[in-house]
Amino acid sequence: MSEQKDQSLDILGIKPIADSINIATKAIVDGSSEFLSRICLPAAEEFGLLLRDRVSHWRAVNAARIVANAESIVKSFPDADKRHAHPRLVAQIIEHGSWTESDEVQRMWAGLLASSCTVDGSDDSNLIFIDTLSRLTLVEARILEYACKECTKEITHAGWLMAKDFRMSLEQLQSCSGIDDFHRIDRELDHLRTLGLIAGGFEPFSTDADITPSTFALQMYARCNGWAGDLLKFFGLSVPSSNSEQPAV
Fold it and tell me: Crossing angle for the helix pair 87-97 and 103-115, nearest 10 degrees?
């Protein structure tokens, strides 16, 4: 009787579609929970409940991709089976990261999740990068990724990491960002500067922009690539001696 009632209520014939989505979502959740259970059991339990009860299939897929990418990075660590992440970090990365379907930004979230995994599991330093990444648009993420990758880095004699002056033309920015609207690019650069990620932006009488990434941006770039170790090693740098020239890459 209940089956006949369900069929009579399903006038549009969408119940089988809804059921298949629920099955697919459950499979995704279960697969992701296995990895999360290993690095952070409380987060895995919350993750499962959240997705099954309140989060759409779309967000579930996005979150699962982030987790899968993070797992791939963690597996490359020599002590992968000993690493864990602070529940607060995992929860916030899943919460913020699941709202994007961009492969580029998902990889950044995955890198943050991977670099959040430490042997004692108590390091919460990625919180500041989670907050910053959650504020970036796709265009900003593309520009920042390019600037941090392509700029020349150096170490001061005091031992500080910094980027040398790095500029891009409007045409280069349009190609890098994937958009032609130069007013929007100008706005995005202003926001990156406000967040303390780049030095400047466009000058009033020029279409060249100062995209020099800040040291904070370089640190975030390393973390978003899954790196939580020595920054100098990540960029292939070493502290210069008093009698040698500053190395750069």
Answer: 180
Domain stops at, among 117, 133, 149: 133
What is the token pair recorded at 97?
A: 């990261």
Residue 62's contacts (CB-CB under 8 Å, 6 or more residues apart) are 97, 98, 99, 100, 101, 106
> Euclidean distance between the first and final Cα of the chain, in Å?
73
**What's this model's pTM, rounded to 2 decimal places?**
0.77
Question: 7 Cβ partners below 8 Å, 6+ apart?
Answer: none
In this structure, are 86 and 187 located in the same domain? no
pLDDT per residue as tens digits for the range 190-232: 999 999 999 999 988 999 999 999 999 999 999 999 998 899 9
Q: Which CATH number does the domain housing residue 159 bear?
A: 1.10.10.10
